[in-house]
Amino acid sequence: MHFTSEQRLENGVLEREFTLDGIPGILWTPPSAAAPAPAPLILLGPPPLGLRKAYPRLAARARHAAADGFATATLELPGTGDRPRLPELEQARADLRRALAAGEPVGDEITGALILPLVDRAVPEWRAALDALLALPGIGGPVGYSGGVISIGTRLAAVEPRIRAAVLFAGSYVPRVMFEEARQVTVPLHVLLQWDDEGNDRQAALDLFDAFGSAEKTLHANMGGHTGVPQFAGDAAGQFFLRHLR
User: Which residues pair with 166 in a beta bridge?
Assistant: First the structure.
């Protein structure tokens, strides 16, 4: 992990940009983080827009978490932002746009081609980042995961034992194979669903929530579109992490 820049945000939060094996990322640490009492870590899953475009909302989530004493980190997703384009993902996105423009249903073939290559590449990268982040002074477990592409969060929660709790955003397409992986997830879950999300299959989100194997799982549904998540929903997610990571 190589740090490339740093700055202090309001309330003393330290923001550091880094690269890990050429992958860009950002780490935020609260002023309370110190080696004798390391801060628990929350991995912030970004939307597939690129970190530069998603930065305002990621930084806001990081500042909110820092106020509760959590360090947070995010990684650029494969094929987004400054990373090289992936031809198979570009083709899948083109097929998705074509289907939507024609008013055709988005079938599992398109959904799988769009999401599964992203999951297959991103999850090992997140696990490598977790190795590097937990080796830094002032950062420790337990670890949570928040947001991003729900299929990435699902697989990461299923395969990474250091993830102790997860907040998942039901706002992206879900391939059928992910429902079987969801049954392997056992950590406490807090799932956010925007009821009128124009880009989300609501029934698929409800079916995925039903498939999760966690004994403790909560569905927090609100009226409104994809970007209309109310502030109190974010506050509830913060309280969830305080219960499970503190």
Answer: 145, 189
Under DSSP, the state recorded for 77 is P
CATH of residue 136's domain is 3.40.50.1820
Give residue 50's identity as a one-letter amino acid code: G
Q: Are strands 14-20 and 2-8 parallel, antiparallel or unpaired?
A: antiparallel
pTM: 0.93
Q: Are strands 39-45 and 71-75 parallel, antiparallel or unpaired?
A: parallel
- Report the alpha-carbon distance of residue 171 to residue 197 in Å, rounded: 7
DSSP string, 113-150: HHHHHHHHHHHHHHHHHHHHHHTSTTEEEEEEEEES-H
Three-state SS string over 91-110 comes to HHHHHHHHHHHCCCCCCHHH
Across-strand partners of 222?
194
Alpha carbon dihedral 137, 141, 135, 14, in 10-degree steps, equals -50
State both tokens at 184: 């392997």
Domain assignment of residue 61, given as a range: 2-245
Report residue 47 as tokens.
């939307």
Q: List, for residues 203-228, the tens digit of each pLDDT value.
A: 889 999 999 999 999 999 887 766 66
**Cα separation, 191 vs 211, whole angstroms:** 12
pLDDT per residue over 155-169, tens digit each? 999 999 999 999 999
Q: What total of structural domains would you count in the chain?
A: 1
